[in-house]
Amino acid sequence: MRHLTAVSASLVGAFALTACTTTDPYTGQTVRNNTGTGALAGALGGAALGYLTNTNKSAEGRRNAMIGAGVGALAGAAAGSYMDRQQAELRRQLEGTGVDVNRQGDNIVLNMPGDVTFGVDQADIQSRFFPVLDNVARTINAYPQTMVDVIGHADSTGAADYNQRLSERRAGSVAAYLVNRGVMPDRLFVEGRGINQPIASNATPEGRAQNRRVEIILRPLT
After folding, report:
1. Is pLDDT of 49 > 50?
2. Of 182, 167, 205, which Cα lies nearest the Cα of 30?
3. Phi, psi of 118 (to 5 degrees)
4. DSSP letter at 4?
5. In this model, does residue 42 exceed pLDDT 90?
6. Residue 200, SS3 per DSSP
7. How many CA atoms lie within 13 A of 196 on its CB side?
8. pLDDT (tens digit per residue) in 71-86
9. How far apart are CA 217 and CA 104, in angstroms?
10. Beta-carbon neighbour count of residue 97 at 10 Å?
11. Calpha distance 97→85 (Å, rounded)
């Protein structure tokens, strides 16, 4: 079963008021710092973020929120071309980082292995991975007609309910970091899927390492 928890507007508002800010050296914009990001992730109590500010837990609810914020939808072949440009930029920025950039139709899937992103049995993002997520966030911000799914996964080692919660916490940490870097919360959907969607065999250490991951799925707003 998938576990989703929507964050109330009051929680998001409280984070916005209490988080410290810093200046992005690339854009000059004022953004929330990593301490604030950690506070948001901790305030969630280990639950996935769900649709951060949408009470309607549907793709349509997210589209409506984005359109209501003045983001125009893409039509026809424009969506494919738009995602082509975004994919090319992400491939340039993420080359050599350990993050796979894959295309599935008009969607782009960024596969972030757990051994690159997190310590063993941890949900705090390793500091050496911050620049990678900074690049991802800048690209997402440059392509405002993109919806963003952040999905956590785990291997089958240990209890399934524990791995479910760990996958949620890891997805929440990545999503909170993106919000900290200026990504509009209405664009995000966050979920932990535990052990339910392996991409390799859990019978080998190599396969389990592949299954411990966070995926960012980028979808065009159509």
Report:
1. no
2. 182
3. -135, 155
4. -
5. no
6. coil
7. 15
8. 888 888 899 999 999 9
9. 10
10. 18
11. 20
Transcribe 66-128 into DSSP letters.
HHHTTPPPP-THHHHHHHHHHHHHHHHHHTTTT-EEEEETTEEEEEEEHHHHB-TT--SBPGG
Token pair belonging to 50:
């769900």
Rounded CA separation 108/215 (Å): 10
Distance CA 53, CA 57 (A): 10
* Amino acid at position 219, single letter: R
CA distance 61 to 165: 25
Which region holds residue 60: left if phi is over 0, alpha if psi is between -120 and 50, else beta? Answer: alpha
CATH of domain 9-220: 3.30.1330.60
Domain boundaries, the chain: 9-220
Q: Which residue has the tokens 């690159």?
A: 116
Measured in residues, the chain has a length of 222
Question: How far apart (Å, rounded) are the C-alpha atoms in residues 131 and 72?
Answer: 29
Tens digits of residue pLDDT in 72-122: 888 888 999 999 999 999 999 999 999 999 999 999 999 999 888 888 788
